[in-house]
Structure formats: C-alpha cells, structure tokens
C-alpha cells in the first residue's frame, strides 16, 4: 500500500471515531513531532505484540488428560 492510500485509510478510520476523548488524544498525538509519534507507535506496536503473545493458551494439561483416558 502506498502513502496516499494509507493516508486515505487513516483519514477514513478517524472519521468513524465518535469518542471525543479518543479524538482529543489523537489530536494531541498529531500535535507532537514526527519523532515522538514514531516512538509512540513503536511502543504501542511492541505492547500489542507482547499482549498477543501472552494470550496463547497452554494445552499440555488437556493433552495429558486425553492421553491418560485413551
């Protein structure tokens, strides 16, 4: 996806937001430097990846019970 397409996608997503507090937060973010925005997005992305990694469920107990019952 090229830059103009990404801009349109971002603008469309922002238009869908109704929460005034969320919009104020986005406005505050956009009023900072590009460097600060990049740092924020990198941190948010890392947190998102870590949260998704923590959501994996350990099925070893279920498998052990299933094998015992066979």
Structural summary, described in words:
- By secondary structure, the protein is mostly helical.
- It has two domains: 1-31, no CATH class; 33-70.
- It contains four helices and no strands.
- It has helices at 3-16, 20-30, 34-54, 60-68.
- The longest helix is centred in the middle third of the chain and has 21 residues, at 34-54.
- The protein is elongated and about 60 Å long.
Gross morphology is elongated
- Rg to the nearest angstrom? 20 Å
Unreliable parts: none
Structural class: mainly alpha
Distance from N terminus to C terminus (CA atoms, Å) equals 51 Å
Quaternary structure classification: single chain
The percentage helix is over 70%
Outline the biggest β-sheet.
Answer: none
Strands, count: 0
Domains counted in the coordinates: how many?
A: 2
Order of helices and strands: HHHH
Strand content: under 5%
Specify the number of helices.
Answer: 4
User: Mean pLDDT, nearest integer?
Assistant: 84
Summarize this entry quickly.
The protein has 70 residues and is mainly alpha-helical.
Task: Indicate the topology.
Elements: H1 3-16, H2 20-30, H3 34-54, H4 60-68
What distinguishing features does this structure have?
mainly alpha; 79% helix; 70 residues; 4 helices
